[in-house]
Structures are given as structure tokens and as C-alpha cells.
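dude i think i finally got it to work??
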Amino acid sequence: MGKKSKNQPRESKEIFESPEAIADKISKTEEFVARNKNIVLTILGIIVVSVAGFFAYRSYINGQNELAQSELFQAVYYFEMDSLDKALNGDGNNFGLLDIARDYSWTKAGNLANFYIGVSYLKKVEFENAIEYLGKFNSDDLVIQARAFSLIGDAYMELGNYYDALDYYNQAIDYKPNKYFTPQYLIKAAVAYEKLNDFESAKKCYKTIVDEYYDSDQFTEARKQEARLKGLAS
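look at this
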């Protein structure tokens, strides 16, 4: 008989347990269940209730999201028509943004309502209310979260609080930078720096646009403003 190959599998008993060993383990498991039937049934009951509760909760949340979205549709319509009071407070038949943000705060529609409320208050020149509601909004969206930061900065600028304005403009700048919106926030930050007589930092903002966002709509304006600040320093 030839020699066994080095790659030949070991005997099956080293890989698979014997039927006798498996039967013995099953027997011991059955004995444990029989002795602890109440405990086992209690644990199974908890698992079943937890799983059922999870799916019931998800179904409830999905239903609430759909309801909130339908309420939001009418409020946003008033917002886009510049009927800000109706957008905020409703029309007597439909919820307003304030109702949606309060009653559906855990839904996506409730979160988005905070953004619309903040913008509405900005338009109504109620800057502190705008800051409050825009600050409640949270999103991982590429555009709208940075926009919310920028609008909070705008509200602080209107209140003459340039330091806080800069804080939010910089958050907007740092949030998922892109050539479409980041240059706008850099321009705003530069204006705020100039309000604080920090011309060097303002110049850096314009230079960032010139160097990194040369294909943006703000490039020409940034180059002009950078040259102006260089002229002031000379």
C-alpha cells in the first residue's frame, strides 16, 4: 500500500463528532429544558415580545413619518407662496410648521420642519427664533446642513454678533466642502472678519476661493476683494 498523501484529510472522527456524542448532547439539552421549563419559556416569551415590539414600533414610526410628510406638504406650499404666518401656524384645517415640529419631532418631517421654521423667522426678521429652530435641525445631507449653519451665521450677523456668525460660517465651510456652495460661505466669513477688522483672515478666505475654487461663480469677486485687501495693507 502506498504512503498517505500529506494533504489527505485526517480521520473523520477528528473533524466530525460521533453520532453517539451528538445524541448525548441532545439528551442533556432535553434534560436541562425539562428541569428548567419555566425559565426557558420565560426567555422565549421575552424574545418573542421584544421582536414583535420592535416591528410594531417600526411600523408605527413609518406611519407617523408618512402622516407628518403629508402635513408638511401643505405647510411648505404656504412657505413657498411666502404666506409665512400660515406656513408657521397652519390655516385652521392643516397643521403649520410649528405644529409639525412639535408633534412629530422624532420624524424626518418634524426635523425638516425646523429648517423651514428657521428660514421663515429669518424672513420675518425674528433672528433669535431663527437661530433656535435652525439649531434644532440636523441632517447628513450634502447641501442643507451646511446651509443651516450658514443661515444661523446670517442671523448672528444681523444681530451684530460677528464672532458667533464666524463660528457658524466656518462650520458651513468645513461641512463636506464643494465648489458649488463652500465659496459662498467663504465670502460670508470674509465679510464677518472684516467687520472685526481682521483683514488678514478675510484675505485668506478670498485666497482660498482663488486657489481652490477657481471654477466657482465666486472666483472673480474673490480675486477682486483679495486685491483690494492687499491694497489696504500696502
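Confidence is low (pLDDT under 50) at residues 1-15, 52-57.
im so relieved honestly
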